[in-house]
Amino acid sequence: MGLKSKIIKYYNNQNWNIGFVGTSPKGLVENQKLGSVEWLKHPYKDRFFADPFIYSVNEKEIVVFVEELEFDKPIGRLSELIVDAKSKKLVRKYTLLELDTHLSYPAIIRRGDDVFVCPENGASGKLSLYKYNGVTHALEFVSVIMNESLADATIRQIGDKFYMFATKVPNTQGDLYLYQSTCFDGEYHEVGLVAKGRGNARPAGDIFEVEGVLYRPAQNCSKCYGGATEIMQITKCEDGCFEEKHLFSLPPTSFRYHLGLHTLNFHGNIGVIDGYGYLYPLIGRL
User: Fold this and answer.
1) Distance CA 95, CA 67 (A)
2) Which pLDDT score is estimated for 13?
3) For residues 144 and 155, is the Cβ–Cβ distance under 8 A?
4) In this structure, what DSSP letter does residue 220 have?
5) What residues in the chain have per-residue pLDDT under 50?
6) Which residues contact 91 (CB under 8 A, 6 or more apart)?
7) Residue 238 near residue 189 (C-beta atoms within 8 A)
8) What is the pLDDT of residues 68-95, one digit of tens each?
């Protein structure tokens, strides 16, 4: 690759970042919009952060688990970001997990005082569960949940059963499958294909609840991967039956991150998203 091609590739490189929104799940559903976003301030120009899940929040810090990917490396790792709650500046960064295959979407599962993470690692051909060690700031392997290449698996307890939503390789953007188990780390069996189409299949974050109603964030990949987030209302999920309906869309609205928005998560009354744009917006748009 010549120098000119390298420069064009660098300036047009995809650049994700995470942003914080001061809205609650109830506020989102009622207003059907995110409101203002405070984007993470960090010093890096050679990497991006995406797929955020909030571990904890207090008056001083917000702790977030993310995908971290360096532009010159094709494989992502999982990282823990310590963010100043007021300024939204990155304070510290730890590597949670790094393998020889791509890692992303560090979905958090809370069981009592224990925190588990079920990351996307479809390139390995399996879905694994890890336990978070807050002392070492690392993820420790627990078990393999499924020997299958799944994308963005999201687990939620509904009633006395655990349901997992995921897409499969190779159609990771178009077909959503539902799995069921009697325990969060147990054997999941496939219920079936529950959503088709690139507009609202692939998971975009944890399922959240507002006044007894469940909502599923989904990626809209109809124009491009992770182009927007769709909010789906789950109307039925029991005994192998699943139904949902589309409520509203969350398109990207930021000037800097105007190309995509494909993750939404909450912890308490704080929300976190990610946004996709050019590393240098003015030059990238040209």
Assistant:
1) 10
2) 64
3) no
4) E
5) 1, 4-5, 7-8, 11
6) 61, 82, 83, 84
7) no
8) 999 888 899 999 999 999 999 999 999 9
Give dist(CA 141, CA 138) in Å, integer: 10
| pTM for the full predicted model | 0.94
Tokens of 29: 């559903």
Q: How far, in Å, CA of 162 to CA of 67, rounded?
A: 25
Q: Report residue 34 as tokens.
A: 């995110």
What pairing do the DSSP bridges indicate for beta strands 264-267 and 241-250?
unpaired
Backbone region of residue 114 per phi and psi (left: phi > 0; alpha: psi in -120 to 50; beta: other values) = beta
- Give the pLDDT confidence score for residue 8 in this predicted structure: 45
Question: Residue 13: is it exposed, middle or buried by C-beta count within 10 angstroms (0-12/13-18/19+)?
Answer: middle
Q: What is the pLDDT of residue 278?
A: 83
What pLDDT, on a 0 to 100 scale, did the predictor assign at position 73? 87
Q: What is the DSSP string of 43-65?
A: --SSEEEEEEEEEEE-SSEEEEE
Q: CA 246 → CA 4, 206, 213, 235, 251, distances in Å?
A: 45, 16, 14, 10, 14
SS3 284: helix
Please report the pLDDT score of residue 145 as a whole number: 95
**What does the buried/exposed string (b/e) look like for 192-204 if buried means 16 or more CB atoms within 10 Å of the residue's CB?**
eebbeebbbbbbb
Is-contact 254 34, C-beta < 8 A? no
Q: Which residue has the tokens 């990626």?
A: 219
Tokens 């050679």 identify what position? 46
pLDDT of residue 2: 53
Q: Could you give the CA distance from residue 168 to residue 190 in angstroms, rounded to a whole number?
A: 12
CB atoms within 10 A of CB 241: 11
Between CA 209 and CA 123 the distance in angstroms is 31
